[in-house]
Each structure stands twice: as C-alpha cells, then as structure tokens.
Amino acid sequence: MDKLLKRRKQELQSFKDYLGKKDFSKTKEIPEGIYTKCPGCGELIPTSTLKDNLHVCPQCHHHLFINSQERLYELYDGHQYKEYYRFLDTKDPLSFPEYKDKIDIAKKKTGMNDGIIVSKGNIAKTKVVVIVMDNRFMMASMGSVIGEKITRGIEMATKKKYPLIIFSSSGGARMQEGIFSLMQMSKTCNALKRHLDAGLLYISYLTHPTFGGVTASFSMLGDINIAEPGALVGFAGPRVVESTMKTALPEGFQTSEFLLDHGFIDLIVERSQMRDTLSKLLTIHGG
Predict the structure, then answer these.
(1) Do residues 232 and 135 both lie within one domain?
(2) In terms of residue numbers, what domain contains 95?
(3) Whether the model pTM is above 0.90
(4) How far apart are CA 109 and CA 281, in angstroms?
(5) Which terminus of the chain, N or C, has less C-beta within 10 A?
(6) Residue 147 has pLDDT above 70, yes or no
(7) Where does Zn(2+) bind (predicted)?
C-alpha cells in the first residue's frame, strides 16, 4: 500500500512538473463556431447538435435563431420548394446617410437582397405559399422591398387559391425609408383583406422578435396566430413601454406565453412540432 501511494505521489509530481514546463501560449484555441452558448441556460452546446435539433437548446429548450432557408428546408415535403421575387433589390429612395453601406454589408453577410423569402411548395401534400422573414438582414425591418414581396406573395396565394403562411421576425418599419416603409403596412393589410374575402386560409407564425409596424399590420391578422416559445412580440419594446408608462410591467410581458394568456394568439408550438402542427391545420382548413 505504501509503495502504491508513493508511486501515485511521484506520478502527480511528474504531472505538475510537466504543467510547469508546458508553454500554453502555443496551445490552439477551439475554433470559432464549434460551440454555441445558449442564451437561456448558458450551456455550451456543440453547434452541430444545435443544428440537428432545429437550433433549440437540448438542455432548456430555448429557441435560438434559425435562418429562413433552414426553416423552409425543414417545413416542405421532401425539402423541396420554389423561391419567388428573389431579385427584387433594395434601393435608397431618400438618400438616407450610410443606408447604402448598411445594405451592402447585409447583402454580403446573408447572400440575400433583403430580409425575406417568398416560396411555394407542398406541406402534407397541400399546395401552400410560405413567406419567411430573416432578421439577419437589418433585423428584417420592413422597407419597400420586403413590403412588396409580402404583397406579391399574398396575391399569388389568392390568385392560385392556396393557403398562406407568414413567419414574422422583424424590428418593425425601416426608418431609412420613411413614408415608403410605413406605406407597406396598409399595402400588406389590403392584400390580406382580398385573401380573406376569397375565403382562403392565412396562418401567422410569430417568432422572436416581432415588433413595430410588422406587429401593427399583417403579423397579427391570421385566421390562426401561432408563436414559438419565449418569443417577444409587441409594438414598442418593454423598456420603451415601461419608461413611457412610468410603471413596472407584469412578469413575462410581451412573451408569447403572456400573449396566449391574454388571448392575442391561439397556440404556442415548439419548433420540433412546427411541421406536424402546420400539416394538421392545412389538412383540416387548407381546402
């Protein structure tokens, strides 16, 4: 026993000597992007694991950002869909300072001309038009191009008599386009009214975050309003509301759970159940 203990002490001392001589300045760091820190629980999750789990934390089920292409890939039958109006290009109608530079940066970062995709395909064998906002591009703030693509997508669904699904995620109206941005609120709502008058289904799917003119227009007008867990949805942000009202806000204010409790939405759906839930709704109501 004494000999074994002595040997263990020698091994420990040898390891300490090794650590003392080791030059850790040359040790390679973990490459960026290999792990992602969950904003919900703080755990470091392998990024590949998150992607396989639709960017939902396996520990606390916090829903992280998922880009528009990944969402559409998981949604459609056979992962197949067709994109429309891709080459509508964002301009600078008011010559707003530094706006062109911000557009160029967003284009290089995302490979998109603006923060939205209009698509058509099959979900549970039902032909459907799906529009997805992508907040990597200037928080998917609604300028003239986003408003035009949403309107064209709605009008295509109406003309073809297809159900319509819009995934909202936006900071609101795009201030760099002024009145041109605000006009998109009434334009998209008028297109939805014609879709409604045709007796066609519109499902609004709210994701984190959805604010401003987007909330005040098409995103809250669904025949069925769905939200992801923990999504923040509102007009002004909670800090602005609190400072304006001069009062403390209720716990969970503007979260999807708060909206469900107060009758603003119909369902909260985990991302893993997104396709199954929409498939059932389209089978029942899609026509």
Answers:
(1) yes
(2) 66-285
(3) no
(4) 35
(5) N
(6) yes
(7) 38, 41, 57, 60
